[in-house]
Write a structure and sequence with these properties.
Helix content is about 35%, strand content about 10%. The protein folds into three domains: about 1-55, no CATH class; about 90-410, Rossmann fold; about 415-465, no CATH class. The protein is built from 14 helices and eleven strands. β10, α9 (about 310-325) and β11 (about 335-340) form a beta-alpha-beta unit. The radius of gyration is 25 Å and the shape is globular. With about 475 residues, the protein is α/β, with parallel strands linked by helices. The protein has a five-stranded parallel β-sheet, sandwiched between helices. A two-stranded antiparallel sheet has the order 1-2. A two-stranded antiparallel sheet has the order 3-4. The chain binds thiamine diphosphate and magnesium ion. Thiamine diphosphate binds near residues 152 and 248. Thiamine diphosphate (TPP) binds next to β8.
Length: about 475
């Protein structure tokens, strides 16, 4: 072969070592120059490696090509394993746990949706039809992997151990809420479970995840010390960052910058796209003309797989494999596009029948669903039946309602938390805002009834007394 260099080689370089680590690592941004001899069949253009010469003038015409990227699945619609040699890669006990979590999520969704309609909650978002994506993928990760979610991934929280009480406290913004009532309902977060707090601003989590994965790459290699204390057994584990987002969020510039920097820096990040066909009222046909989001992964040089989101075993296997790939050779990003249909309305503020036919939704509901598919598999194996189903559903309903009523009774957070956690010490400017607010609250006690808030109307005094 006449090449002087067959691929970009990475040089080894010693990086600054802020902690006790002193390992020599690859610095991905240090690339050797590339060149080739005059009669080479391939020219190693710095911008397109390994491209062969051709004398056929042919445009790439995706609009004319017949095949789309295929969709990986383990189970067919009837809950039967397609490839007996790989099987479901899940024990019966594990499958039952996953099933219980999916059912719990769907029951919580139904009850919370109704609670919003009754005026007891201000807002809610359901995951209907997408339970297999969040629960299946979370089950394939290590508890120490760092997760960034959008908002339709409550199943990730549930699978990681977020309790019903924690869900309800956040939804009611009561004084036990991790976020002290500062966020919209459904914007959960958990430091203990390594899940970053959800942000309403679409796609911002994607570059955050790429950045976190870069930090993890350095930590995995021992170049920098770990930030935050590891929980038991985590010290030896290499970690990945995992980022969930919808296909609509993938239209934001943040998506593109994040995938590009993740690829150029080769960071251990699993990007999990939930492609449910809609971004509120915008169908995918108005959102893009390419082959879904998977095609974009290939465009950024990222290992990519498209998966049937109604098949929890397929999602689980795909994410397990993605995790392995993401940690190989010091790290690399991986994209998994999970296909599903958004069966529910976008949120409680949306009526989707204003922009899609009821029959379209009914068709999808009848055709496929991650919960029924897994149930069919369990029944096929003789580990599930109608009686177990009834017991699970009635028990879960009671548990959700109990947690709901408990959280509803609790007081709201102290009003001072509207100001705390911004600066370590209250600033003079903040003090002026606090005293203005205190004055308003005193003058209009009927309009601002603080009975239900911890500390009542005196909540702000503590801040004002602080010097
Ligand atoms: C930057 C920004 N633009 C617009 C919105 C309004 N918005 C909230 S959700 C959403 C649709 C997102 O769709 P997708 O990413 O496909 O997720 P899905 O709701 O389908 O799960 C939009 C446009 C927002 N929150 N942030
Ligand atoms: Mg969507």
């Amino acid at each position: 072969m006449p090449f002087r260099c067959s691929a970009r080689r990475l040089q080894l370089q010693r990086l600054p070592t802020p902690c006790n680590a002193s390992r020599t690592v690859r610095a991905p941004w240090q690339c050797r120059g590339v060149a080739s001899t005059a009669n080479a069949e391939k020219v190693l253009f710095p911008g397109a490696l390994n491209s062969e010469f051709t004398n056929t003038l042919e445009f790439l015409r995706p609009s004319k090509s017949k095949g789309a990227i295929s969709t990986y699945r383990c189970l067919n619609q009837y809950g039967e394993v397609i490839d007996k040699s790989t099987g479901a890669d899940t024990t019966d006990e594990e499958a039952i746990e996953l099933y219980k979590n999916m059912v719990q999520l769907s029951i919580m969704d139904l009850l919370m949706f109704e609670a919003q309609r009754q005026g007891r909650l201000s807002f809610y978002m359901v995951s209907a039809g997408e339970e297999g994506i969040s629960i299946g993928s979370a089950s394939a990760l290590h508890p120490s992997d760092v997760i960034f979610t959008q908002y339709r991934e409550s199943g990730v929280y549930l699978q990681r151990g977020f309790t019903l009480a924690q869900f309800m406290n956040q939804l009611f913004a009561n004084s036990s809420d991790n976020g002290l009532g500062r966020n919209m309902p459904v914007h959960y977060g958990s430091k203990e479970l390594n899940i970053h707090t959800i942000s309403s601003t679409l796609a911002t989590q994607i570059p955050h995840a790429a950045g976190a994965a870069y930090a993890l790459k350095l930590q995995n290699a021992g170049i920098v010390g770990r930030i935050g204390a590891p929980t038991a057994g985590e010290e030896t584990t290499e970690r990945v960052a995992v980022c969930f987002f919808g296909e609509g969020a993938a239209s934001e510039g943040d998506f593109h910058s994040a995938l590009n920097i993740a690829a150029t820096r080769q960071v251990p990040c699993i990007f999990i796209c939930r492609n449910n066909g809609y971004a509120i009222s915008t169908p995918t046909s108005d959102q893009y003309r390419g082959d879904g989001i998977a095609a974009r992964g290939a465009g950024y040089g990222i290992d990519t797989l498209r998966v049937d989101g109604n098949d929890i075993f397929a999602v689980r296997r795909a994410v397990k494999e993605a995790r392995k790939l993401a940690l190989e050779d010091g790290g690399r990003p991986v994209l998994v596009e999970c296909m599903a249909y958004r069966v529910g309305h976008h949120s409680t503020s949306d009526d989707s029948f204003a922009y899609r036919q009821r029959v379209e939704v009914e068709d999808w509901k009848r055709r496929d669903n991650p919960i029924t598919r897994l149930r069919k598999w369990m029944e096929g194996r003789g580990v599930w039946d109608e009686e177990k189903e009834k017991k699970l559903r009635s028990g879960t309903r009671k548990e959700v309602l109990r947690a709901f009523e408990e959280a509803e009774k609790q007081k709201k957070p102290n009003i001072k938390h509207a100001f705390t956690d911004v600066w370590e010490e209250i600033t003079e400017e903040q003090r002026a805002h606090v005293s203005e607010m205190a004055d308003i609250l005193k003058r209009y006690p009927k309009e601002y009834d603080l009975e239900g808030y911890e500390g009542g109307a005196q909540g702000l005094d503590e801040l004002l007394q602080k010097r």
